[in-house]
Amino acid sequence: MGLMDLLKKGLKKTREGFFERIASALKGSKLDEATLEEVEELLILADVGAETAHEIVEMIKERYREAQDDPLEIAKKVLTEILEGDATISSPEKPPLVISVVGVNGTGKTTTIAKLGYLFKSQGKDVVFAAADTFRAAAIEQIKTWGERIGATVISQHMGADAGAVAYDAVSHAVSKGKDVVIIDTAGRLHTKHNLMEELKKVHRVVSKILPGAPHEVLLVIDATTGQNGLVQATKFKEAVEVTGIVVTKLDGTAKGGVVIPIRHKLGIPIKFIGFGEGMEDLKPFSARDFVEALFD
């Protein structure tokens, strides 16, 4: 299945729930106040959030006043501009590339790590997983299972071990063995738990001591089905650690995929990957243009 087909299939609920109605309201219209109010309401229902929805409508209104183009095409351009950002993954001068993956439990964080590992393996890279979620025995076993499945080396310790020590061992191993990528699984912390956030900072400090500049990427995994709570999580994580990119999962399971828009707009963090299903190939690099096209078409 091509990327556009996958996007259209994955965004089906969001498109049919709200964005087809937005397209119907805008296409070829004269863009009066009633139409703008309807669009704003539909954006809010799609979990874009009241503030962002209002700003989007104001931008559409302003552009229409200037150009008198088709309002639907103006809306597509506005949303594309909001969502655009650097979706590439950092590439350090010399390997390994170190990626820390953070987020709350239940977002699909561990599966996302496996999919990222698969993506790098398919590019011919040597991948190391650091099982630094030492709070749950199941998390360590999960990472080991995924490592075996995709052919990644897994560095782990016992449950309750120091997460920073696991991350340190994984990066040390990658440096000494000439591996290309280290992906660190971290405890699925609630964004309200101060002590867990402090531990996350410690993991990053430890890694940076052995490899200056690491972690090169801090990817926050957000479950699209949680809607506006995803924005709250992203805000808290951004305050605690330097989040470099967002991975949005489970977009196929919700009509509220619009939450992607305020996360990018309000926080300025680029969306780097989006996930639609359980398959290893169901995690795709984010393209603002393709995403918006699939939302409406």
Write up this protein.
Helix 6 (109-122) packs parallel to helix 7. Strands 3-2-4-1-5-6-7-8 form an eight-stranded mixed beta sheet, with helices on both faces. The mean pLDDT is 91. It has two domains: 3-83, Up-down Bundle (Four Helix Bundle (Hemerythrin (Met), subunit A)), CATH 1.20.120; 97-287, Rossmann fold. The protein has helices at residues 3-10, 12-26, 33-45, 50-67, 71-83, 109-122, 137-150, 163-177, 194-210, 228-240, 260-267, 288-296, and strands spanning 97-102, 127-132, 153-155, 181-186, 217-223, 245-249, 271-275, 283-285. The protein has twelve helices and eight strands. The two termini are 17 Å apart. The chain has 297 residues and is α/β, with parallel strands linked by helices. The chain is elongated.
Please sum up the structure shown:
This protein is an alpha/beta fold and 297 residues long. The mean pLDDT is 91.
SSE layout and pairing:
Elements: H1 3-10, H2 12-26, H3 33-45, H4 50-67, H5 71-83, E1 97-102, H6 109-122, E2 127-132, H7 137-150, E3 153-155, H8 163-177, E4 181-186, H9 194-210, E5 217-223, H10 228-240, E6 245-249, H11 260-267, E7 271-275, E8 283-285, H12 288-296
Parallel strand pairs: 1-4, 1-5, 2-3, 2-4, 5-6, 6-7
Antiparallel strand pairs: 7-8
Helix pairs in contact: 1-12, 2-3, 3-4, 4-5, 5-12, 6-7, 8-9
